[in-house]
UniProtKB/TrEMBL annotation:
It comes from Bradyrhizobium shewense. The lineage of its organism: Bacteria, Pseudomonadati, Pseudomonadota, Alphaproteobacteria, Hyphomicrobiales. The keyword Membrane applies. It is found in: Cell membrane. Belongs to the binding-protein-dependent transport system permease family. It is a multi-pass membrane protein. GO terms for biological process: transmembrane transport. PANTHER family: ABC TRANSPORTER PERMEASE PROTEIN HI_0355-RELATED, ALKANE SULFONATE ABC TRANSPORTER-RELATED, MEMBRANE SUBUNIT. This is NitT/TauT family transport system permease protein. Keywords: Cell membrane, Membrane, Transmembrane, Transmembrane helix, Transport.
């Protein structure tokens, strides 16, 4: 345990130092080459835009966070649920999975205007766009994980007259968790992209909406700040998935 904590602390320190070094190099390069602010603002100039009250950074960040988290949560729930259903009903998987593959090929930018027509403006269409982008990787990886359980374990439970629920709870679900979280990691990244796609198409609030507004004024520091906040939201969601993975996958492995 102590060794694992030390390694985790050392890894975190290295990651933090690398990020700080990039920020320092960015600041030094902008100052040394006198790069105009509208082309590439320095980190200090970017942070200073947080004091602009008219941009409502807190409210717009909260809206985008709700869209990202809502789309991701819906995608994770639907993706895992469908994968479980497909594992229990192979014929249904044969019928519907190719359809989902085809639907996933539709450019999500093209779906944006349709979502606006169907659901009007607001948070809901952007949540649905984020969901439509992030749920498919979760579905595929979870379905693969449920299929790749050791056949000997399945035969053992069946020979002991275990029910389907027992088979799923004791064997399939624990064995598929690494696949589930792998899909969720990809989904966390895609959910951020999906929410911003929706805000770019048509929105009245959010960081994507703010970026469109400040673009006309060539307020590049504000645009960069919006990108930084989006990145932080994505990192926070990805970190949450890592924590859950450590709790349910690594923790179970240690107990066994």
């Amino acid at each position: 345990m102590a060794g694992d904590s030390a390694r985790a602390s050392r890894s975190f320190a290295i990651i933090l130092i690398v990020h700080l070094a990039v920020l320092v190099l960015w600041q030094v390069a902008v100052d040394a080459f006198h790069v105009p602010k509208f082309i590439l603002p320095s980190p200090l100039a970017t942070v200073q835009t947080l004091g602009t009250a008219s941009y409502a950074w807190g409210a717009n960040t909260l809206v985008t966070a709700v869209e990202i988290l809502g789309g991701f949560a819906l995608g994770a729930f639907v993706g895992v649920a469908l994968a479980v259903i497909f594992s229990w009903a192979p014929l249904l998987s044969l019928v519907l999975l190719p359809l989902f593959v085809t639907l996933n090929m539709i450019p999500k930018v093209a779906l944006g205007p349709l979502f606006i027509v169907w659901f009007s403006y607001g948070i809901i269409p952007n949540i649905l766009i984020a969901f439509s982008i992030c749920f498919f990787p979760i579905l595929l990886t979870t379905a693969r994980g449920l299929r790749e359980v050791e056949p000997d374990l399945l035969d053992l439970v069946k020979s002991l007259r275990g029910s389907r629920w027992t088979l799923f709870r004791k064997i399939q679900l624990p064995g598929s968790l690494p696949y589930v979280f792998s899909g969720m990691k990809v989904g966390a990244i895609l959910a951020v992209a999906g929410a911003i796609v929706g805000e770019f198409i048509a929105s009245e609030r959010g960081l994507g909406y703010l970026m469109i507004q400040v673009q006309s004024a060539l307020d590049t520091p504000a645009m960069v700040m919006a990108v930084v906040l989006l990145t932080l939201l994505g990192v926070a969601l990805y970190g949450l998935v890592l924590i859950l993975e450590r709790m349910f996958v690594v923790g179970d492995a240690r107990q066994t």
